[in-house]
Design goal:
The protein is mostly helical and 303 residues long. It folds into two domains: 216 residues, Cation efflux protein transmembrane domain (Alpha-lytic protease prodomain-like, Up-down Bundle); 75 residues, Alpha-Beta Plaits, CATH 3.30.70. The longest helix is centred in the first third of the chain and has 30 residues. It is a multi-pass membrane protein.
């Protein structure tokens, strides 16, 4: 895991844990359903950051006979678990609590306490979000938008933390609006609407993450820019006549399999061919350092 990803996760973990404690205390004093939904959301987020760190640690295991291409996909798996937790613990719980209060409304007590806690939570969450945005800015290419980075990034942690933080910030605002509307209109169902809105938001974010991480788990090819670099590295060698076929697949955010069929000069001996293949591996790794596993098969082009 890159240092920026770890920094964003640690910042989010500390912020969410503190926010969760404050929200649960606020719920005990106010009985606000939106505040309870947000408390569970923050607790789930804290657990999620722990899962991301666990995935990063497990991904560092060296390749062995059980997993000969290493354990890089552990980071994708545990990030996918985060999406499931966000959906079930965060989204479904908030929906359930919101529907319950909408059916059986009751007034929120000590609105001033609830608003104060949510205000403090917004400040803490803003710190976490700004940290994530700053690390994304360092990680993405200058011409990339944040939306493009989230969609195309091969590292799962930063997009997950960023979407969680965005969801948390919006969720806090929804909870605050629900509580204030319920207080000033004397209609407690607004608090329930806030909780339901938070549930829908979290389920939507979980769905976005699940779709993104599914493709990582199945196996994604390298980015087109990286494929182009690999093609250039192979075809630039003087003994290469033709690149017949090229396949790539990520087995982790920073681990790439490269498989290529290449036509070499027909006059090469077996010993010379072996030396050229080794030179190609060096060229490919120099162009794309994450190409850890390279398989080059000599072949002849067929019409």
């Amino acid at each position: 895991m890159q240092d920026g990803s770890k920094k964003a996760i640690v910042a989010a973990f500390g912020a969410n844990l503190g926010i969760a404690v404050a929200k649960f205390t606020g719920f005990a004093l106010t009985r606000s359903t939106a505040l309870l939904a947000e408390a569970v959301h923050s607790l789930a987020d804290s657990g999620n950051q722990g899962l991301l760190l666990l995935g990063s640690k497990r991904a560092q295991k060296k390749p062995d006979r059980k997993s000969e291409f290493g354990y890089g996909r552990e980071r994708y798996f545990w990030s996918f678990v985060v999406a499931l937790v966000l959906f079930s613990v965060g989204g479904l719980f908030a929906l359930y609590e919101g529907i319950q209060k909408f059916s059986h409304p009751h007034e929120t007590k000590s609105v001033a306490i609830a608003v104060s806690i949510l205000g403090a939570a917004i400040l803490l969450e803003t710190f976490s979000l700004l940290t994530a945005l700053r690390e994304v800015k360092h990680a993405k290419k200058p011409e990339e938008t944040i939306r493009t980075f989230i969609r195309t990034s091969k590292q799962p942690e930063l997009p997950v933390v960023l979407l969680e933080d965005i969801g948390a910030e919006i969720g806090l605002i929804l909870a605050l609006v629900g509580i204030l509307l319920g207080h000033y209109t004397d209609e407690p169902r607004w608090d329930a609407v806030g909780s339901i809105s938070i549930g829908v938001l979290l389920i939507a974010i979980a769905a976005i993450l699940a779709v993104k991480l599914k493709s990582h788990l199945i196996g994604e090819a390298a980015l087109p820019s990286e494929v182009a670099k690999i093609e250039t590295a192979i075809t630039s060698h003087a003994k290469v006549l033709h690149l017949i076929n090229l396949r790539t697949e990520h087995v982790g955010p920073e681990e790439l399999i490269v498989a290529a069929k290449v036509e070499f000069e027909h006059s090469l001996s077996v010993a010379d061919l072996s030396l050229v293949v080794n030179e190609l591996e060096v060229l490919v790794r120099h162009s794309v350092p994450m190409a850890l596993f390279i398989f080059i098969e000599p072949d002849i082009s067929r019409p």
